[in-house]
Amino acid sequence: MTIATEFGTRGGILAERNLKYVLIAPAVFIILLIGLYPILHSLVVSFQDVSALFKNYDFVGFMNYGRLFGDGRLWYAMLHTLIITAIALPLELVLGLLMAQLFLEKMPLRQLMVALAIIPSVLSPVVVGASWRLMFDDRFGPINAAIRLLFDERFSLPWVISPIAVYPALLITEVWQWTPFMFLMLYAALSNVDQSLEEAAKIDGAGYWTIFFKIALPSIWPVMAIALIIRALDLVRIFDIAWVLTRGGPGTFTETISIYLYQRGFRQFETSYTAAMVVMIVIVLSVVVVWFLRRMEVTGAQAR
Amino acid sequence: MRQSPLNMWLRFVVGLLVILIVVFPVYWLFSMAFKTPNEIFAFPPVWFPGSFYIENFKTMWRTDDLVPVWNSIVISSISTAIALCLGTVCAYSMARFRTGGDNFAIWVLSQRMLPPIAIVFPLFLAYAFLGWVDTWHGMILVYTAFNLPFVIWMMRGYIQDVPVELEESSLVDGCTRWQSLIRVVLPMSRTGLFATGVFTFIFTWNEFAFAFVLTRDGVLTFPVHVSHYFGALSTYWGKVGVISLIATLPVFLTVAFLQRYIVRGMSMGALKG
């Protein structure tokens, strides 16, 4: 085996130095191929003027970027995405924390309940979308049926196509799927909190909530921050659940950035314009993420 | 022990309610698999299937509706295996030699944070040019790349936990680096490797955006196939129920049986990150 002989060369700092690059090379190559190449390609195309009908490979400067600012639909898509993120993220955090607190303590069937509770987050968003399309159906959906049973016999609300109910429907689905993920992370973190600290605080007369806010919360903060950033990034690029549930409708009422991108790129074939959007999104997200990660690392290092 | 303002039985009841909310929508979808068309579209809804109706399953077997599930199995397992191999080796280099330092680690992680739709648009143009749209190797390559950052990030944490002294002594005893990786480091971090593998598989299994754009009917994966069955007008809820049930139950069982590994793996990975 050639690889074995590669690895066999030990002795000498030089061999070691080469080895470490040999080890990362295949992974880096694939990431560059699929991760970086598309972005570079977009960068080039975004300065051209290519669409399905009109293929102009001359460079046109910042024309496409200029159009971004005048594109009302793009700004609305951003607004929709921000609204969804701003409501779903705190909800998932609070509900996840409450669930974690609830299942942290002894109760019958706890193990089973925790196993059941994390089910939604291992489902495909498409399956979740299908499930909630059924739940929200205006005729044979259980939610409308329950409301009919309890309040009004003639109640019939087509949730996913009615402008007043579509955001609640989307948010309920999103929060239902991802709160369990939040719960699992926080549950694991809370089970690792140093019990002796809590005991000591209790002896000193601290109440339940004081212990929670002064001891438990600070010690799970690193996990919580990671869980929050994972969820925030997922929400900002939300595509699958929204697509399956509403297709961005009614009209463009729930169109998120990812859905708008898809429509422009794959339905209207505005290649260059979509590429400009891609570049803009990549730049904005990269700046935010790198800034956040660096901040996290600095604070993490100080805490240690 | 902790002391809560609620007593145990009250908490138990609240817990049951939470579980009901979590489980009911899944039950509802799965129940479609066993309902007759009349029961599916009944008004008011039928809460339990009246009989053990398996006609939906038979139909699925006759038509080619389960082929996408097979496609998903092939694509997810191969890309998970490749990502685990390449990612672990890369993580080993980063953990032991600090290759690339923190900047490289952050760069790797940041690859995971771009919107799939943003990546897939230019990728589609490239694939169309190369003739890779709707091919096995095309899909496996995409998912390998998509999963590598996660594998690297998780495994870097786990390998850092393996005491360097153990490895040094194996090197002194005459192992090559490669042997020491296989015989010392991997067995020591097998829990982490296993949890990472399960997660990677589930991510790939459930992924929608890439498969939606990059497959037609040749290597269609099951999420895309399911999404075709509930359009605005025609909806085959029986079929959606059957495919969802068949494609999701294995995941449930894995997660239920390996719950401890998964909880530990998840929190450890996050803490190391």
Describe the structure.
The complex is a heterodimer of chains A (about 300) and B (about 270). Chain A is mostly helical and about 300 residues long. Chain A has 2 domains: about 1-40, no CATH class; about 45-304, MetI-like fold, CATH 1.10.3720. Chain A contains 13 helices and 2 strands. Chain A has helices at about 1-10, 15-45, 65-70, 70-105, 110-115, 125-135, 140-150, 165-190, 195-205, 210-235, 240-245, 255-265, 270-304, and strands spanning about 50, 55. In chain A, a hairpin with a 4-residue loop joins strand 1 and strand 2. The model of chain A is unreliable at about 1-15 and about 300-304 (pLDDT under 50). Chain B folds into 2 domains: about 10-60, no CATH class; about 65-270, Orthogonal Bundle (MetI-like fold). In chain B, helix 4 (about 65-95) packs across helix 10 (about 190-205). Classes of the chains: A mainly alpha (about 300), B mainly alpha (about 270). Chains A and B meet through helix 1, helix 2, helix 4, helix 5 and helix 6 of A and helix 1, helix 4, helix 5, helix 6 and helix 7 of B.
Largest interface: A-B, 108 and 103 residues
Relevant CATH superfamily of the largest domain in chain B: MetI-like
> What is the CATH level 1 assignment of the largest domain in chain B?
Mainly Alpha
The global form of chain A is globular
Give the percentage of residues in beta strands of chain A.
Answer: under 5%
Structural class of chain B: mainly alpha
Tell me which oligomeric state these chains represent.
Answer: heterodimer
Which architecture name of the largest domain in chain A does CATH use?
Orthogonal Bundle
Number of helical stretches of at least 4 residues of chain B = 14
Order of helices and strands of chain A: HHEEHHHHHHHHHHH
Main sheet properties of chain A: 2 strands, antiparallel
CATH class category name of the largest domain in chain A = Mainly Alpha
Tally the helices of chain A: what do you get? Answer: 13
Distance between the termini of chain A: 44 Å
- Report the radius of gyration of chain A as a whole number of Å: 25 Å
CATH architecture of the largest domain in chain B: Orthogonal Bundle
Provide mean pLDDT of chain A, rounded. Answer: 84
Structural class by helix and strand composition of chain A: mainly alpha
Taking all residues together, what is the mean pLDDT of chain B? 84
Overall geometry of chain B: globular
Please state roughly what percent of the residues of chain B sit in beta strands, choosing from under 5%, 5-15%, 15-25%, 25-35%, 35-45% or over 45%.
under 5%
